[in-house]
From TrEMBL:
Residues 211-226 form the CCHC-type domain. SUPFAM superfamilies: Retrovirus zinc finger-like domains, Ribonuclease H-like. This is CCHC-type domain-containing protein. Gene3D superfamilies: Ribonuclease H-like superfamily/Ribonuclease H. It comes from Cuscuta australis. InterPro entries: At4g02000-like, DUF4283, RNase_H-like_dom_plant, RNaseH-like_sf, RNaseH_domain, RNaseH_sf, RVT-Znf, Zn_knuckle_CX2CX4HX4C.
Length: 683
């Protein structure tokens, strides 16, 4: 007996390959060793998910493979809409998956069964799922294996006990097979030998989606017909999440390394203990005999593949690797060879994350205050920023009045700190309070009728519609001063008289005006901008052709004596965006001037945004294509001896504009002699 065991161990050890220095072969040469035979016998588990949602097969198979990690891999096949076959290549992998279940995907429990040879199962036949049940509150003397088995039969079909040590546990575990068409058992009434009654409670391990109303797995209460028709509130449902027993760590691995496909894997590399590089087919998209050489060549060249060449897209490479419709889409993306791809926060214009932009992304943009719409005029009033912020907070209803603080959960006696009347609100503080009424009456400027306004925001709207600019300055200063007096009453227990308050308004407004008065600019005779006499004058423009999706760009050079020298007209691959088209036309014009050997030039454009961005010495917007194009233009300008970019009216750029509009039908380069259709404009 012992000799037979030793012989079997020796045979098993002889089959183990413990040499880490073996050579890895990807492609067998002529006369090489044949590949090892693989045992294609499989053990199949059939399963369905308890859900009405569509299962994304590609994602599901990766998730399940990552969760299972079968030693010899798994091949997953979709047999029907919600019926899947999981083919394992060793019995131990298949049985382990059954014993460690239940498993789930997207919160849907997988009901599965290990098939016998020749057995055929349909989705409707899969209704039993095995899971561990935790048993709580068993009294002393009622914890024998026989009683635990009886409890397991009460919950479902008893499978086995948990034989692991349980000295530190407050519960017992049994594995049962549960019918998914029946409600889960929450508890069990146990009558003891002395006639006493106790309730035994259950928790289910790896329990996923189930209905809190009917207790059946596979749906939730808001999708349950009985729950919707019942008169119970959700908190009154008989089931809750307490039936779930703890959780398990989520596996974030990708899962591909445990999946096996019908197609082979390609490996290359040899020598010592280095890991062999693997290439796995996820789709059966090559069937001919020479596919290995094709894939190996593409695989080896992909790491050095570049789709851009000299600042633009390499059309030949794009057409080699992409279909034509994708090539057209890629060519419309402005090429930015000087920039590396990076992450940008789309919630802000500069691409940088801030707490403010994150808050706005989560909470949404603030809604407009009903009754007031003069925001732009408010922010243009020449007063201290704190005054405008105070008025803005009052209009938004976020000043910390007693009513506002109580609405946040505080419990403060709601009375006005100045007059002692009940309910300190924004409307009362600035309109109804006797102190505020005295201040408004003693002011030296007229204000809208406060009694006719339904609210503070409505009154401010009337004021902004009727008051002059100088009156608005005093009005917002007065609002701020009333709030300042209110704070003095709260924190210092003193309130100035209305007369003193009006004087303080005048003093503050005059002091701010005196300290921030700007000296009038010195008037000097305007002089025409002088350009270098030897500079070439170049006009450029862009045109969009929406029907064909093309973008045209052109440039025209004149001498300092306004004589035609050269021109070009080209089609560009660019999105149908006027600003991007103008920026790309500027970059194209600079490249063209550089190719002609021009070192001193003045470039004119009728697009003010492009001219302003190029002449801005600050950093361009790195989170946009426009900013990248402007950076490219600045880099090209740095290679010139002297180059200026200036804005002109459209009427002075009519030659370039006309040439750009003809790009759809005519392109080219012209030296010394312009195209015929420009002769009338030049004359």
């Amino acid at each position: 007996m012992e000799g037979g065991v030793v012989d079997r161990l020796n045979i098993g050890l002889a089959q183990l390959d413990l040499d880490e220095e073996q050579e890895g072969l990807s492609f067998l040469p002529d006369g090489g060793a044949p590949p090892a035979e693989i045992n294609l016998h499989t053990w199949t588990i059939v399963g369905r998910f308890l859900t009405d949602k569509v299962i994304k097969f590609d994602i599901m198979q990766r998730v399940m493979a990552a969760a299972w990690k079968p030693a010899l891999g798994v091949r997953i096949v979709q047999k029907d809409d919600n019926l899947y076959l999981f083919h394992f290549f060793h019995m131990k992998d298949a049985t382990r998956i059954i014993e460690e279940g239940p498993w789930s995907f997207d919160n849907a429990t997988l009901v599965m069964k290990l098939l016998s040879p020749g057995e055929v199962v349909e989705a409707k036949d899969l209704n039993m799922v095995q899971m561990w049940v935790q048993i709580y509150d068993l009294p002393d003397g009622y914890t024998s294996l026989e009683i635990l088995e009886a409890v397991g039969k009460f919950v479902g079909i008893f499978v086995k006990h948990d034989t692991s040590p349980s000295i530190h546990r407050s519960y017992f575990r049994v594995r049962v097979s549960i019918d998914v068409k029946k409600p889960l058992r929450r508890r069990m009434k146990l009558t003891k030998r002395d006639g006493g009654v106790v309730w035994v409670n259950f928790k289910y391990e790896r329990l996923n989606g189930f209905c809190f109303y009917c207790g059946i797995m596979g749906h939730i209460a808001k999708h349950c017909r009985d729950a919707v028709l019942s008169e119970l509130e959700p908190e009154e449902y008989p089931f809750d999440a307490s039936l779930r027993a703890g959780g398990r760590k989520k596996d974030t691995s990708y899962g591909l390394q445990w999946l096996r496909f019908d197609n082979p894997s390609l490996g290359e590399g040899a020598g010592s203990s280095r890991r062999m590089k693997q290439f796995r087919f996820e789709n059966a998209w090559l069937r001919d005999d020479g596919y290995k050489d094709v894939i190996k060549e593409a695989w080896n060249s992909s790491s050095t593949l570049s789709l851009q060449d000299r600042g633009c897209w390499n059309l030949e490479r794009l057409q080699t690797h992409l279909v034509q419709c994708d090539v057209s889409q890629v060519q419309m993306i402005p090429s930015c060879p000087r920039r590396k791809d990076n992450w940008f926060w789309i919630g802000s214009e500069d691409g940088l994350y801030s707490v403010k932009s994150g808050y706005r992304t989560i909470m949404g943009e603030a809604t407009q205050t009903p009754g007031f719409s003069q925001w732009s005029r408010l922010w243009r009033i020449p007063v201290a920023p704190k005054v405008k912020v105070c008025v803005w907070r009052a209009l938004r209803g976020i000043l910390p009045t007693v009513s506002a603080l109580n609405s946040k959960g505080l419990e403060i006696d709601n009375c006005c700190s100045i007059c002692g009347q009940l309910s300190e609100t924004v409307d009362h503080l600035f309109l109804r309070c006797p102190f505020a009424e005295y201040v408004w009456e003693r002011s030296s400027f007229r204000v809208a009728n406060r009694s006719a306004a339904s609210s503070f925001s409505n009154w401010v709207q009337l004021v902004f519609q009727t008051a002059t600019s100088s009156e608005l300055i005093h009005i917002v200063w007065t609002i701020w001063m009333i709030w300042k007096c209110r704070n003095a009453a709260v924190w210092e227990q003193r309130v100035p008289t209305p007369e003193v308050t009006v004087c303080m308004v005048l003093n503050f407004s005059k002091g701010w005006e005196n300290n921030h008065r700007e000296d009038p600019p010195t008037l000097t005779p305007s002089a025409e901008r002088v350009f270098p006499p030897e500079a070439a004058h170049c006009f450029f423009d862009a045109a969009l052709f929406h029907a064909s999706g093309l973008v045209g760009a052109c440039g025209v050079i004149f001498s300092s004596s306004k004589e035609f020298q050269a021109a070009f007209a080209r089609r560009l691959w660019c999105p149908q965006d006027p600003l991007l088209a103008e920026a790309m036309a500027c970059r194209e014009t600079l490249s063209w001037l550089k190719s002609l050997g021009v070192q001193v030039a003045v470039i004119f454009s009728d697009c003010f945004r492009v001219v302003e961005a190029i002449n801005d010495s600050g950093v361009s917007d790195c989170a946009s294509y426009f900013g990248s194009l402007i950076d490219d233009c600045k880099a090209l300008m740095a290679s010139f001896e002297s180059v200026l970019v200036s804005h002109v009216r459209r009427s002075l750029n009519v030659v370039a504009h006309t040439l750009a509009r003809r790009v759809e039908t005519q392109t080219g380069d012209w030296d010394f002699a312009p195209p015929d259709f420009l002769m009338s404009l030049l004359n």
